Amino acid sequence: MALPRITSPHATGTNRTQRVMLLVLAATLPGVVVLTWLYGAGTLINLLWASALALGFEAAILKMRQRPVQFFLRDGSAVVTAVLLALALPPYSPWWLTLIAVGSAIVFGKQLYGGLGQNPFNPAMVGYVVVLVSFPLEMTSWPFPHAVGLLDGIQHIFGLAPLADGWSHATALDVLKTNKSLTLDELWQNRAFGHFGGIGAEVVNLAFLAGGLFLLSKRMFTWHAPAGMLAALAVMSLLFWNGSGSDTNGSPLFHLLSGATMLGAFFIVTDPVSGATSNRGRLIFGIGVGILVYVIRAWGGYPDGVAFAVLLMNLAAPTIDYYTRPRTYGHRKAERGFKLGE
């Protein structure tokens, strides 16, 4: 009898890998719609360009490894990595920036370790960190919300037309980190700030929250990791919230609705491969990510910190699994004073 060939994570029935990836892609649609509404065609161009690059890199590496190309491309994992990475990159990122990010994600974050199910780090976050460290200016400059047509977007991305002066700006997290003199009330007058989490960012985060709740309702993951991350981030920002003066670190609502918070909580920390495996382990994993996100935002050298926090906790995931292994079914917990042979 021939056994079915299913890529890891080894899910059967209605939760096969391909279906899981399709549901994840569907859950990103609210965020894609909002980003397109705010910034025009740049997000869509980034998505198409990143997806094409991911499929190309994946096929090339599989060919080099002498693995069946079509079989592994059909599972959809490469496209999901590309989509999550493209959504994290600023709209209208230069074509070469996306190429480097996607190439790093697929080659060094995924295929270097053997492919889906064997990567210790989240591939999308690997690609994101590579370009964030290498090209900080391009990675922290987002356009002001305004509609840009498809043709203009292609010209911007592929360098066929220069960007207009004043077309891009620093994110709200970046403005808050570099601010030394303005109060929070004065910062709200900056065009980078919206009502709570930065202009545009707050609506985008709510859209990703909606997509994440959709995945949660479909039981694609448990609540532990996202709840742990969001709760830890909220508690940390509440404990260290020092008012609205010039030295403020931002309110809990600001941190929850800024940057890549909701994208990270529902689409990154829920990765079943690079995260913890038990429910208790997932909760600890999410709490660790939330704490590190705030520490990096408030006292680190980067304005957001979601990617760095996830990668650091990916390193800790095996240790978390070791200490949170569930009790073997049918066995009781070991009692103090238990001796071998009793």
TrEMBL record:
<dbReference type="InterPro" id="IPR004338">
    <property type="entry name" value="NqrB/RnfD"/>
</dbReference>
<feature type="transmembrane region" description="Helical">
    <location>
        <begin position="192"/>
        <end position="216"/>
    </location>
</feature>
<keyword id="KW-0997">Cell inner membrane</keyword>
<feature type="transmembrane region" description="Helical">
    <location>
        <begin position="125"/>
        <end position="144"/>
    </location>
</feature>
<dbReference type="InterPro" id="IPR011303">
    <property type="entry name" value="RnfD_bac"/>
</dbReference>
<keyword id="KW-0288">FMN</keyword>
<keyword id="KW-0285">Flavoprotein</keyword>
<keyword id="KW-0472">Membrane</keyword>
<feature type="transmembrane region" description="Helical">
    <location>
        <begin position="282"/>
        <end position="300"/>
    </location>
</feature>
<feature type="transmembrane region" description="Helical">
    <location>
        <begin position="20"/>
        <end position="39"/>
    </location>
</feature>
<comment type="subunit">
    <text>The complex is composed of six subunits: RnfA, RnfB, RnfC, RnfD, RnfE and RnfG.</text>
</comment>
<comment type="function">
    <text>Part of a membrane-bound complex that couples electron transfer with translocation of ions across the membrane.</text>
</comment>
<keyword id="KW-1278">Translocase</keyword>
<keyword id="KW-0597">Phosphoprotein</keyword>
<dbReference type="Pfam" id="PF03116">
    <property type="entry name" value="NQR2_RnfD_RnfE"/>
</dbReference>
<comment type="similarity">
    <text>Belongs to the NqrB/RnfD family.</text>
</comment>
<feature type="transmembrane region" description="Helical">
    <location>
        <begin position="306"/>
        <end position="324"/>
    </location>
</feature>
<feature type="transmembrane region" description="Helical">
    <location>
        <begin position="253"/>
        <end position="270"/>
    </location>
</feature>
<keyword id="KW-0249">Electron transport</keyword>
<keyword id="KW-1133">Transmembrane helix</keyword>
<feature type="transmembrane region" description="Helical">
    <location>
        <begin position="71"/>
        <end position="89"/>
    </location>
</feature>
<keyword id="KW-0813">Transport</keyword>
<feature type="modified residue" description="FMN phosphoryl threonine">
    <location>
        <position position="171"/>
    </location>
</feature>
<keyword id="KW-1003">Cell membrane</keyword>
<feature type="transmembrane region" description="Helical">
    <location>
        <begin position="95"/>
        <end position="113"/>
    </location>
</feature>
<feature type="transmembrane region" description="Helical">
    <location>
        <begin position="223"/>
        <end position="241"/>
    </location>
</feature>
<feature type="transmembrane region" description="Helical">
    <location>
        <begin position="45"/>
        <end position="64"/>
    </location>
</feature>
<protein>
    <recommendedName>
        <fullName>Ion-translocating oxidoreductase complex subunit D</fullName>
        <ecNumber>7.-.-.-</ecNumber>
    </recommendedName>
</protein>
<keyword id="KW-0812">Transmembrane</keyword>
